[in-house]
Amino acid sequence: MDETSKKTLSSIPLLKTKAGPRDKDLWPQRLKEEYQALIQYVQNNKAADNDWFRLESNKEGTRWFGKCWFIHNLLKYEFDIEFDVPVTYPATAVEIALPELDGKTAKMYRGGKICLSDHFKPLWARNVPKFGIAHAMALGLGPWLAVEIPDLIEKGIVTYKEKSTQ
Amino acid sequence: VEDTQASLDELMAQMKNI
User: What is the CB-side half-sphere exposure of residue A55 using CA atoms within 13 A?
Assistant: First the structure.
């Protein structure tokens, strides 16, 4: 892992509670910790002038959705994000999906779920339950966008959509 | 993460308003 990524990762707070979405007693506490870590990560990103995603969940914290942005050649590309929290979370990591890119790249499973590097799963497993959704974003989606989006743009598979002004 | 007095609703709202 490069030094910048290490620094980014180490500045995301670690989570304490090991609980999945079916744990009625401890899931609310885990969910609070997820939000705390995400809030800190987004604040860090804004301070570093790299505000690249937003996320929110349903009330139960089982379904998450949001947007991410990637700047390439001075243009800002926006993509929808969605994922569910698996029943075996946090032992099983979340599978982040970009549904708009489904079928457009080989680096994706059906439904737009991003394929992660071979490093991700063992790294996640070693850090259960300390890693959470914020860490999955930093270790998973961030690097995936950095590799895949420029390639998809260069190939013309992803094209810039100008936001309409009202 | 530090112990917090904030409720889950408050944290959700904070995330929305960042």
Answer: 29
Query: In terms of Cα–Cα distance, which of A64, A69, A67, A65 is closest to A49?
Result: A69
The answer to whether residues A112 and A99 touch, using CB atoms and an 8 Å cutoff, is: yes
**% of residues, chain A, pLDDT over 70:** 98
Domains annotated for chain A, with CATH where assigned, are 3-153 (3.10.110.10)
Question: 10 Å Cβ neighbour count for A39?
Answer: 19
A118 pLDDT band, cuts 50/70/90, is confident
Pick from A84, A64, A68: nearest CA to A76: A68
Interface of A with B in 4-33 (CB under 8 A): 13-16, 28, 31-33
CA atoms within 13 A on the CB side of A80: 10
Closest Cβ–Cβ partner in B1, B16, B18 for A36: B1
